[in-house]
Amino acid sequence: MKSVIVVGAGIWGSSLALRLAETGWQVTLVEQHRPGHVRQASAGETRLMRCSHGGEEWYARMAWRARDGWRRLSERVGEELYLEAGMMWFAGTPDGWESASARVLKNLDIPCEVLDPEDGARFFPEFRGDDLSFLLWEPKAGVIRARRATQVTAGLAEAAGVRLVRGRAVPMAGDGTPYLSGVQVGGEVLTADRVVWACGAWLPELFDAPLTVTKQDTLHFAVPAEWTTPGTPAWVDHAAAAYGHGDVDGVGMKATSDVEGAPYEPEHGERTVDEAGVASARAYLARRFPSLVSAPVLFSQVCQYALTPDAEWIIAEVSPGVWLLGGDSGHGFKHAPALAEYVVDVLDGVQEPHARFGLHERKLSRGLRTSGEAG
Ligand SMILES: Cc1cc2nc3c(=O)[nH]c(=O)nc-3n(C[C@H](O)[C@H](O)[C@H](O)COP(=O)(O)OP(=O)(O)OC[C@H]3O[C@@H](n4cnc5c(N)ncnc54)[C@H](O)[C@@H]3O)c2cc1C
């Protein structure tokens, strides 16, 4: 039986472990804390699911496949892990990122509709869109209950036979060779045919990977009942680097920024939000949803991005059989079920990973993120 060690039980590692176990691999999943622990990026209360990726077809296809994965996972566990509330894109210019997205979605037969800014009032109470060129409506997008989905996925992996080992893993050099041969966890040495390091923001501590880790504050505001998701869709203002969704599970309406924060250390960093972030979220609410300008912050979380320069992920073999899986760049959660299938094919040797995921020098670009340059 083929064996594999996956290090990191965030949504990427857990989804991969589950998929590997279900396709006949003997899997060990190593996690230094618990699946769904608050430091991991996957433990955000919610994450957006969208197919729009500007002109990028590859990611649009993968997100569309992943949507199926989330629906199947929800059905399988009898829990609504994915709320298909739809997503509204607020387009500031007629021919920018959103129109490129619309072209790709239409080419791929992924449902979308171009709407007039005035139509926004049908979706959001007291919507102000007089500065916008158009709206792009993605009805099959939505919101994932992220932390819960991560815990559920890790639980399913264990139920499928994955051995979960609790501890901090360290790469081990082989006997007298420059190759990495295994994983050390406390006093235990683990070896397998393949090792996948899916360590999120911890990856640069272990390997020389082109990653910047930044502090990201997430804010949820107390809102009246009419702002509840799925009635209220998710929304993204790409040019303003602002995004959010209605109230899910009583934690308030999410309204937050995609602008990268200060460099951050995920294990020991203080997890308190910055006042400046609250002020800028409130300024955005005042502009777009004026009735919410005085809404108090109800709930906040500090998380971290693991950013590559071009927001493309890392799927790279660093030594025979040893793979890095990371650099999610703040847009990886939604893809997890489909990405797991893709990586299993890579580990099985069925396909080579796309060259875009390599450890080559990368050019600065944020085209795949939910925000443009403006910040
Ligand atoms: C504020 C914010 C908003 C986001 N919004 C979205 C969104 O709307 N849509 C979307 O698709 N994505 C979004 N993302 C990105 C998404 O959250 C990430 O892509 C995803 O969670 C990455 O999962 P991961 O498994 O790679 O990393 P993580 O969830 O961070 O998991 C890594 C795990 O590895 C473990 N680990 C690390 N090192 C070791 C070691 N040496 N030994 C053992 N265990 C180890 C850690 O403890 C951790 O549990 C957002 C991210 C942030 C921060």
Helix content class? 10-25%
Structural class: alpha+beta
| Tally of contiguous helical segments | 7
Q: N-to-C SSE series?
A: EHEEHEEHEEEHEEEEEHEEEEHEEEH
- Give the CATH H-level superfamily: FAD/NAD(P)-binding domain
Count of DSSP E strands? Answer: 20
SS strand fraction? 25-35%
User: Which molecules are bound besides the chains?
Assistant: flavin-adenine dinucleotide
The Rg value, from CA coordinates, equals: 20 Å
CATH architecture: 3-Layer(bba) Sandwich
CATH class: Alpha Beta
Can you give me a brief rundown of this structure?
Helices cover 23% and strands 27% of the residues.
List the helices and strands and how they pair.
Elements: E1 3-7, H1 11-22, E2 26-31, E3 46-49, H2 57-77, E4 82-83, E5 87-91, H3 97-107, E6 113-115, E7 134-138, E8 142-145, H4 146-159, E9 163-166, E10 169-173, E11 180-185, E12 188-191, E13 194-197, H5 203-206, E14 212-221, E15 234-237, E16 242-245, E17 253-257, H6 275-288, E18 297-307, E19 314-319, E20 322-326, H7 336-347
Parallel strand pairs: 1-2, 1-13, 2-9, 5-15, 13-20
Antiparallel strand pairs: 3-8, 4-8, 5-7, 6-7, 10-11, 11-12, 14-17, 14-18, 15-16, 16-17, 19-20
Bound molecules: flavin-adenine dinucleotide (FAD).
Flavin-adenine dinucleotide (FAD) binds next to helix 1, strand 2, strand 3, strand 14 and strand 18.
In words, what does this structure look like?
The chain has 375 residues and is an alpha+beta fold. It has a single domain (3-357), classed as 3-Layer(bba) Sandwich (FAD/NAD(P)-binding domain). It contains seven helices and 20 strands. The protein has helices spanning 11-22, 57-77, 97-107, 146-159, 203-206, 275-288, 336-347, and strands at residues 3-7, 26-31, 46-49, 82-83, 87-91, 113-115, 134-138, 142-145, 163-166, 169-173, 180-185, 188-191, 194-197, 212-221, 234-237, 242-245, 253-257, 297-307, 314-319, 322-326. An eight-stranded mixed β-sheet has the order 6-7-5-15-16-17-14-18, with helices on both faces. Strands 9-2-1-13-20-19 form a six-stranded mixed β-sheet, covered by helices on one side. Strands 3-8-4 form a three-stranded antiparallel β-sheet. Strand 16 and strand 17 (253-257) form a beta hairpin. Helix 1 runs parallel beside helix 4 and helix 1 packs across helix 7. The longest helix is centred in the first third of the chain and has 21 residues, at 57-77. The mean pLDDT is 94. Flavin-adenine dinucleotide is lined by residues 7-13, 30-33, 40-42, 44, 47-48, 168-169, 198-202, 206, 216, 218, 303-305, 326, 328, 330-334.
